């Protein structure tokens, strides 16, 4: 079970896509949060332990709050992101 969870997390790990990290720092952070959320959602169904499920739910809530914060920061900075940075999600 642990190997399956580890594989799922590795599957959704974001790759470095920006040539200039300073240009895409905030966008990269948003992308990383999205990838982490997808990984948590993928592992949610595989978790049978109630304590791990509770941990997963709280982690999802925290990541969604961080995502909202990052989006607000991006809006304040009037950032635009080419869609190709996010792939075909």
Protein topology:
Layout: H1 2-11, H2 25-44, H3 50-76
Report on the architecture of this protein.
This protein has helices at residues 2-11, 25-44, 50-76. With 89 residues, it is an all-alpha fold. The chain has one domain (2-13, 24-79). α1 packs antiparallel against α2 and α2 packs antiparallel against α3 (50-76).
Oligomer kind: single chain
Following the backbone from N to C, one meets helices and strands in this order, namely HHH
Q: What Rg is obtained from the alpha carbons, in whole angstroms?
A: 15 Å
The unreliable regions are 7-23
The number of distinct helices, counting runs of at least 4 residues, comes to 3
Which strand-content bin applies to the residues?
A: under 5%
The percent of residues in helical segments reads 55-70%
For the structure shown, list the relevant keywords.
64% helix, elongated, mainly alpha, 89 residues, 3 helices
What's the short story on this structure?
This protein is mainly α and 89 residues long. The chain has helices at residues 2-11, 25-44, 50-76.
